[in-house]
Amino acid sequence: LIADARGMVKAGFVKLSAGIIVIAAALALLSAFSVSSDDLAGYRLADGLSGALRVCFAVFLALTLLYTVFVWREERERSLAFGLLAAMAGFAAVGLLAYQVSPPAWSFAGVLLSLLVGALAGALILANTAHAQEFITPPDGTPPGAAGPTVYVTGQGLAYDSIALTPLPPTGPFQRLLLGGPTGLMTEFGPGDQEYVGGRWWLDLNGNNMVDMGEPFFSCPLLGLGYDPS
Prior knowledge:
Blueprint: H1 2-5, H2 11-34, E1 39-40, E2 43-44, H3 50-72, H4 76-101, H5 108-136, E3 151-153, E4 158-162, E5 166-167, E6 175-179, E7 185-187, E8 200-204, E9 217-219, E10 222-227
Parallel strand pairs: 3-7, 6-8
Antiparallel strand pairs: 1-2, 3-4, 4-10, 5-9, 6-7, 8-9
Helix pairs in contact: 2-3, 3-4, 4-5
């Protein structure tokens, strides 16, 4: 929501994210209705909160649906307003949920913090994906062989232009590509280096040097001689 308000992400990504939020809100409401007592598999829950929790998640779902409708209709001011209301309802529901499940846990604050950290991690993954799309996705209709992103090779201190990417299955040799550097994308090796694998890339979105779900594999050969990006 903050990135959208600041114009940092594309409209298509906002629409996709809105759909994901609606699905998550519906699943949360379904889970709230599936718990019908103050005891869950032998674990005691805070008394008398099931009804209030269902109301909170129902309000959250209703607001996220309205937010999604306005996002898809590209009514920016209304979508941001209802997005803010949905976020407030979501925080209230998460807080109530943390209090409900806190009796057998270490503390209310600890449970609330763990839920918020999990939500933040999901948001960061989506944000990284959006940021990556700005650099690696060619415009609609771009034919193979057209201009692609510029990649900075840290081991050489040079930048290289490239051919538009082609998605690849995650098999065979790949070279790690990172977000950052003077061109937005960087890697350690380039043309002339033995470790360069011809422009077969794996984009390490979070920089943890491990292949995570959703990270893309693609072909994007570097062209010609490198140049000083400054």
